[in-house]
Amino acid sequence: MKETIKLGLILLIITVVAAGVLAVSNNLTKDKIAELEMEGSIGALKEIFGDMDKFAPLAQGQQNEIIAANSNVIEVFEAYSGDNIAGYAIKSKSKGFGGDIVMITGFANDGTVVGMQILEHSETPSLGSKAAEPEFTDKFRGKSTAEEIAVEAISGATITSKGVLSGINEAREVFNAQLSN
Question: How many other CB atoms sit within 10 Å of the CB of residue 42?
Fold first, then answer.
């Protein structure tokens, strides 16, 4: 009995020290992690929108309102041509076969999809992972936001395809309801 209590206390001390080290480490690196995530998002936006002059996060109040109403929306960005907003990009997540799929979808003010990119996924290599390849992502370019977006599923990766479509259509609904003019 004494030995069990002694081992339990040792395990408790190790756990507390490990949690403390992780908390300090997280606190020291959180700004750098946020900066790297923003750089990744901006890089994806440059590939989606091409020749836009700059990108900026949506005003915090409006962004918080959108995220509160749509649990799968992560961030919203504005794309500028000069001083004018030329479109929006919505970073969102949806469920795939292997877990969450994080994607960013760009919308032009005329109500078309400018492009999309898969930022993170845990899909099966050579099957679901094809969702991140241009052969699939390019299928969304130029689609109208007026009605639900549909494309042909990836053969052998139906759940992944449905997950991506679900994420894009949720972003489309947010764009139509809260961002388009």
Answer: 15
